[in-house]
Amino acid sequence: MITSSNFLLFALASLALNLTPGADMLYVATQSTSRGVKAGIVSALGIMCGCLIHLLAAILGLSAIIASSAMAFSIIKYAGALYLLYLGIHSFFSQQAFQPTVEKKLSSLYKIFRQGVLTNALNPKVALFFLAFLPQFIRPDMAVQWQILLLGAWFNLSGTIVNIIVAVLFGKMGNWLIKRKWFMKWQPKITGLLLSGLGIRMALQSRK
């Protein structure tokens, strides 16, 4: 299996990458600020499950198909971009502002969780990341699939922990912002613009 020194190097590299602001972190921060800490944590857990889909795909070799097929990459990319644009436009024109005193219903939390799963699962860059990053720490003379599972699971776990911390921090910020009337007025539009921006960013990204 993987040597302890190699795993430590991978763990440090994974932590550095997960601490770098990206689409997932921005999505969690947006949900936390606008909907509260609980919604942010649920979003982070949804992203974690979406990442598990990419990990399973990497183990089964589907990531290689996405990397080699421009059509497969484009289909997944534009599906994810359209979904984020839909969420952004819906939020932009929504009349509902953040209400921290209202307890989130299970159905609402499930919807947030599902959005997190789809946001990550429909991002082909995650699949390509697993394909490009994990092999650098894998010994080809050992059980490759088990090494992918171990490294991918660790990367996903560390990323989830970082996103949960982001959810708590930005959720607390949301509780402070809720006392500002300007935030109550512009929050849905700010959230909508951020989500739409993520969608446009995903649509414009290349395979490189």
Secondary structure blueprint with pairings:
Elements (H helix, E strand, L loop, with lengths): L3 H16 L3 H13 L1 H24 L1 H7 L1 H23 L13 H16 L2 H10 L10 H34 L3 H24 L4
Helix pairs in contact: 1-8, 2-3, 2-8, 2-9, 3-6, 3-7, 3-8, 4-5, 4-7, 5-9
Question: Which tags fit this structure?
Answer:
208 residues, 0% strand, mainly alpha
Uncertain segments: 97-104
What is the β-strand count? 0
Report the order of strands and helices: HHHHHHHHH
Terminal residue distance: 30 Å
Quaternary = single chain
Cα-atom radius of gyration: 18 Å
Instruction: Summarize the main sheet.
Output: none
Mean of pLDDT: 78
Estimated helix fraction: over 70%
C-alpha geometry: globular
Structural class, by secondary structure, is mainly alpha
Explained architecture:
- By secondary structure, the chain is mostly helical.
- The chain contains nine helices and no strands.
- Helix content is 80%, strand content 0%.
- It is globular, with a radius of gyration of 18 Å.
- About 4% of the residues have low confidence.
